[in-house]
Design brief:
Bound molecules: zinc ion
Largest sheet: 10 strands, antiparallel
CATH class of the largest domain: Alpha Beta
Number of strands: 23
Strand content: 25-35%
Radius of gyration: 25 Å
CATH architecture of the largest domain: Roll
Distance between the termini: 46 Å
Number of helices: 6
Length: about 450
């Protein structure tokens, strides 16, 4: 039991620390890169943290939170159950995860059998959460008595497996009735959109989405000034009891930066895809990503610097993102692979041609994703490989280059080619969305308004 509590606590500390780190990037990004950036290594002094830390999708399962039984010094709480929430990592099986919690093999077998009457255990996906219920034992050093578990099938359905009095297990599906509400929030930015947004009561997950939606256009380290403004309208789903179930999409947002207002609207296209568009019907998404990796920190910028292995000063024609070995690397844009293989000091290297003008390159990979090879077409955001330290490299990192007309340019500075622009009928439909959204927004009360000075 103690180890479980301890593990939960450590996981909490880890999550809190990562939350802090991802919050920090907007706070202080000492980005002025001097001419000679010293080292290309993961252990190099941190110049900055990557613009977005959205978590590593390949992260292993983690205990999210624990409600431990009270300490032995508290009044008796013997009938209060507690829950361990576990998250499925890559390749995890339900039975393996329950075993890790110290649950008896026979209970695991019987509970999974009950589950399979309403849900196939192998449908549990990476990242899915399972909430396991225990009754505390008097001896807190032992794991509690296993009472069952529940799985969120999606936002509206939950599968509950519970232990009966006779020791057998039964399962059922519970449907949650949710009401959709809209939340309007606005305020002023002091130093960082993230921090000011949190102060205004915007949930962290919504802010991450907001930053992601704008990250194509806004450099959150350079473009934010004190006094800039934000407005946002997002969906919130409530249970019948009036509790928040989850936050949905951002339908509208506007950032007013140095007096210029940039509004984006969520719009569903005829083909069923949804995307953000500005007031002119131009996609907010750009043709290329500046940071084709999540949860990394910029460890070396573009420019002249002393090479860590070769020792002499030379031009660094890309940017380096330090990240743990195995972190997925994404294709920065749609295109086709023109090179996938070993390339001298670059180690395992992939180059993608996006159009007649732009290509991107990714170096020092540990390995390529399945099926990556010359001629293969890739979509933006598709995983093409994993961070490693192959070639001339002193630690796991992604070396990323953007080539324009065959020459490397600074990925953090290059003006990104824009995404699609709606025309004709599609533009008309979008304009109707825009009008309706604007009307909705102004009809809502400002839920959280904080003078953030
Ligand atoms: Zn590099």
């Amino acid at each position: 039991m103690l180890t479980l509590v301890l593990r939960g606590f450590l996981a909490f500390v880890f999550l809190a620390a990562s939350a802090f780190l991802s919050a920090r990037f907007v706070l202080d990004w000492p980005l002025e890169l001097s001419g000679d950036e010293p080292v290309e290594t993961a252990s190099a002094p941190t110049l900055s943290i990557a613009p977005i830390s959205l978590g590593n999708p390949a992260a292993a399962k983690a205990v999210l939170h624990t409600q431990p039984p009270s300490s032995p010094f508290d009044p008796p709480v013997i009938f209060r159950t507690y829950e361990e929430t576990i998250r499925a990592g890559r390749g995890d099986t339900l039975s393996g995860m329950l075993t890790d919690l110290g649950i008896d093999a026979e209970d695991i077998r019987a509970s999974i059998q009950a589950l399979s009457k309403v849900y196939r255990p192998r449908d549990i996906k990476q990242g899915q959460e399972i909430s396991v219920t225990f009754l505390p034992n008097e001896n807190l050093f032992n794991a509690g008595t296993f009472l069952g578990f529940s799985i969120e099938r999606d936002f509206t359905k939950r599968i509950v497996v519970s232990k009966n009095d006779d020791g057998s297990f039964s399962s059922k599906q519970v449907t949650l009735d949710l009401n959709r509400t809209l939340v309007r929030s606005e305020g002023q930015i002091k130093n960082s959109l993230y921090v000011s947004g949190r102060k205004a009561g915007i949930p962290a997950a919504v802010l991450v989405e907001l930053i992601r939606a704008y990250s194509w256009d806004v450099d959150f380290q350079r473009d934010i000034r004190t006094g800039d403004k934000f407005q946002v309208m997002f969906e919130r789903y409530m249970t019948e009891e009036g509790e928040e179930a989850y936050n949905g999409n951002i339908l509208f947002a506007a950032l007013t930066l140095s007096g210029t207002r940039n509004a984006i609207y969520l719009h569903k296209l005829k083909d069923g895809n949804t995307d953000y568009f500005n007031e002119k019907g131009q996609s907010a998404r750009k043709a290329l990503m500046r940071t084709p990796i999540d949860g990394a920190r910029l460890s070396s910028g573009y420019g002249r610097r002393k090479h860590p292995i070769l020792g002499y000063t030379r031009m660094h024609r890309g940017v380096d993102f330090a990240a743990p070995r195995g972190t997925p690397i994404y294709a920065a844009g749609n295109g086709s692979i023109t090179y996938a293989g070993w390339k001298g000091g670059y180690g395992k290297y992939i180059r993608i041609r996006h159009n007649g003008e732009y290509s991107t390159a990714y170096a020092h990979m540990r390995r390529f994703a399945k099926g990556m090879g010359t001629g293969r077409r890739v979509r933006q955001g598709q995983i093409i490989g994993y961070v490693g330290t192959t070639g001339r490299s002193t630690g796991p990192h992604l070396h990323y280059e953007i080539m324009r007309g065959g020459r490397q340019t600074n990925p953090l500075r290059v003006k990104m080619p824009s995404g699609r622009k709606l025309k004709g009928k599609a533009l008309e439909t979008f304009m109707a969305t825009l009008t309706q959204t604007d009307r909705l927004y102004s009809s809502l009360p400002v839920e959280f308004k904080v003078a953030d000075k």
